[in-house]
Amino acid sequence: MFKQTLVLAVCGILVTACTTTSTPDPRFPVTPEPVIPAQVVLSTQKVLNLEDTMWQLVALTRGVNANQIQDGAFLNFQSVNSRIKGSTGCNRLMGGYKAQGEFIKLTEIASTKIFCPSGGIVQEALFIEALNDTRGWRIENKHLFLLDEKGDKVAVFEER
Question: Considering the entire predicted model, what is its pTM?
Answer without folding.
Answer: 0.68
